[in-house]
């Protein structure tokens, strides 16, 4: 683990990962326990792998996190995005902009996709906030999900915040830390403030702002949706974990391995009214166990009146893509009889964005098109309609 720490400090994250894997695969139980304790002391962080390159031991943590002091700051002051990069052009055409945003002494870089304006149409547009997974960045995530291409046809703005390497050495969103699980604090606060700012500047319909993510980004999307139901209308979670399932590295690793245990008391707190949510998870995911999706669905059902006492039985359909990937889609209705929750179990799929493009990392091009299904679900759930 000392080798891993030295590699991380030197920026050699691949060497750090290999060192951690060697330590955790040691044969002796004492060595295993010592490696785990050293990892926790160093702030080790769960990270996912892609479908290609899955580690031999799927329970291994893929990276280290540096513990950094939490910045001061209170409230939610308005802030404007930084200027777009030199390649972004103003006007009515399609744009792919880069910017920077600061809130509560935190600064995030971001990428913003603006679709072409429809002729003579000045109506506000919907927006999806996309939270990447560990080791990814905005351009990689956009390429892998193909979200911009789909958004172009539907006139949807797409915002890609980027986690900083200062906050997490592998650029994971810190979904498992209590200071990032509450409204008005940490990463949920800056993501929500950025979404508000971009929505105001770029004529976005405030009733049609959505958030989605993959793996650590999926876990953070569920956190953000829980903390800011006044900002986001619906949530998409791909290969993620449920809000409140972890309060530190040890509980995060445990949830990733086998599903969440009892929520840590006094950390995230109980889930309130659930936002409409669409969930995707591979049942062969060796990085984040599929029980996390099942626990998320159960928590969402409890939060929206769809639990054991619900009158309507869920609708279950099974399908297969042209490339042979099978899935089961389960649709739950809320207390008012509206479709409010979808769970897509991806049979035989690992830890990767379903239906994505091989031009991005951590994708499974053979699967059902998760991006298209998310957009379909989101656009059917404006906040004003609830």
Provide structural commentary.
The protein has 10 helices and 14 strands. With about 375 residues, it is of the alpha/beta class. The protein has a 10-stranded mixed beta sheet, with helices on both faces. The chain has a two-stranded antiparallel sheet with strand order 1-2.
Quick description:
The chain is an alpha/beta fold and 386 residues long. α1 packs antiparallel against α2 and α6 (186-201) crosses α7 (216-227). It contains ten helices and 14 strands.
Task: Tell me the total number of β-strands.
Answer: 14
Number of helices: 10
Distance between the termini: 51 Å
What pattern of helices and strands is seen along the backbone? Answer: HHHEEEEEHHEHEHEHEHEEEEEH
Bin the strand percentage. 15-25%
Task: Provide the descriptors you would attach to this structure in a database record.
single chain; 386 residues; alpha/beta; 10-stranded mixed β-sheet; two-stranded antiparallel ribbon; globular
Break the fold down into its secondary structure elements and pairings.
Blueprint lengths: L1 H8 L3 H12 L4 H14 L1 E2 L17 E2 L30 E9 L2 E9 L10 E7 L6 H8 L1 H8 L2 E6 L23 H16 L2 E11 L1 H12 L6 E5 L10 H10 L18 E6 L8 H13 L11 E6 L5 E8 L5 E9 L5 E2 L8 E2 L5 H10 L7
Parallel strand pairs: 5-6, 5-7, 7-8, 8-9, 9-12, 13-14
Antiparallel strand pairs: 1-2, 3-4, 4-6, 10-11, 11-12
Helix pairs in contact: 1-2, 6-7
């Amino acid at each position: 683990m000392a080798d891993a720490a030295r590699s991380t400090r030197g920026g050699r994250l691949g060497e750090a990962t290999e060192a951690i894997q060697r330590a955790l695969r040691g044969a002796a139980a004492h060595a295993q326990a010592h490696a785990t304790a050293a990892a926790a002391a160093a702030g080790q962080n769960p990270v996912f792998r892609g479908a290609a390159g899955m580690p031999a031991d799927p329970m291994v943590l893929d990276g280290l996190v540096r513990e950094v002091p939490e910045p001061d700051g209170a409230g939610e002051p308005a802030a404007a995005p930084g200027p777009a990069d030199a390649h972004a052009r103003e006007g009515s055409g399609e744009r792919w902009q880069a910017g920077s945003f600061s809130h509560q002494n935190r600064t995030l870089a971001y990428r913003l996709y603006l679709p072409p304006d429809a002729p003579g149409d000045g109506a506000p547009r919907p927006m999806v906030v996309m939270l990447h997974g560990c080791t990814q960045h905005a351009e990689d995530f956009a390429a892998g999900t193909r979200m911009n291409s789909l958004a172009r046809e539907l006139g949807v703005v797409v915002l890609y915040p980027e986690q900083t390497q200062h906050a997490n050495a592998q650029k994971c969103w810190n979904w498992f830390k209590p200071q990032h699980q509450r409204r008005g604090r940490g990463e949920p606060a800056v993501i929500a403030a950025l979404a508000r700012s971009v929505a105001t500047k770029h004529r976005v319909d405030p009733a049609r702002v959505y958030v989605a993510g993959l793996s650590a980004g999926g876990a953070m999307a569920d956190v953000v949706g829980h903390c800011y139901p006044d900002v986001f209308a619906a949530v998409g979670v791909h290969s993620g974990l449920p809000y409140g399932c972890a309060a530190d590295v040890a509980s995060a690793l445990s949830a990733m391995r086998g599903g969440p245990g009892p929520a840590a008391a006094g950390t995230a707190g109980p889930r309130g009214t659930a936002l409409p949510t669409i969930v995707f998870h591979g049942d062969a995911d060796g990085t984040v166990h599929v029980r996390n999706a099942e626990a998320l669905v159960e928590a969402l059902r409890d939060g929206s009146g769809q639990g054991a006492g619900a009158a309507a039985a869920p609708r279950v359909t099974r399908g297969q893509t042209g490339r042979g990937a099978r899935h089961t889609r389960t649709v739950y209705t809320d207390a008012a009889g509206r479709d409010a929750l979808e769970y897509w179990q991806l049979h035989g799929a690992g830890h990767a964005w379903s239906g994505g493009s091989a031009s991005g990392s951590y994708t499974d091009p053979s699967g059902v098109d998760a991006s298209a299904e998310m957009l379909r679900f989101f656009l059917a759930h404006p906040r004003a309609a609830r």
